[in-house]
Amino acid sequence: MNARQQSILQTVIDKGRMSVTDLARMTGVSEVTIRQDLNLLEKQNYLRRTHGFAVPLDSEDMETRMMNNFSLKRELAAFAASLVNAGETVFIENGSSNALLARTLAERGDVTIITVSSYIAHLLKETPGEVILLGGIYQKKSESMVGPLTRQFLQQVHFSKAFIGIDGWQPETGFTGRDMMRTDVVNGVLEKGCEAIILTDSSKFGVVHPYTLGPVSKFNRVITDSGLAASNQLLLEQSGLQVDIVQRP
To answer: Given CB 3.0 to 4.6 Å as the disulfide criterion, which of 95, 98, 101, 144 pairs with 77?
Structure first.
């Protein structure tokens, strides 16, 4: 995705609806080029086209959440992808940064991705990467598999690294999630004893949700952005975590 297409996406997200004519005027290219851009972005599940217009997907959809701070999340995903070697099998949990990571790795075509996210599996259908989607109860809102069957399937697969999204972190609570069943799946992943990596933007730090991910000792690394307060970074490091800071674009 080039800089013009990123600008188009962000404008559509911000404005809610943009005409081909206005997008051409804004970017300084022809309407033919804009239509080509929109066709590509729609094919990649970033927006939806209507006659003469581009509109964002439903605000509850993963695609729209992915586009919030897209440039930052892309940088986080690129850094995370650099930690994965050719031939590895990795688990990638739900979340917008994780979805971008999955696409980055799948486009390389040299990594096997295990996920419980049906959204991620669908996102990768045109890529050369191998994808294993674990079964379970289909949680429609999160487009994720959860429940005891998912736990059982986790026992049947093996992976070297797991990339986990969080909803919150505070020093007193550690990492937390807002959904009990998704949190239970993450805790099942942590029981595997693989390298567990938190991938999240810094907005989640200082927030608390009901369900505990962890304990913290089960995690190895945090990848986040330079919005993380220095005091929180110190606390994370004192708890034994390696903290990788990606500069905001």
So the answer is: 101
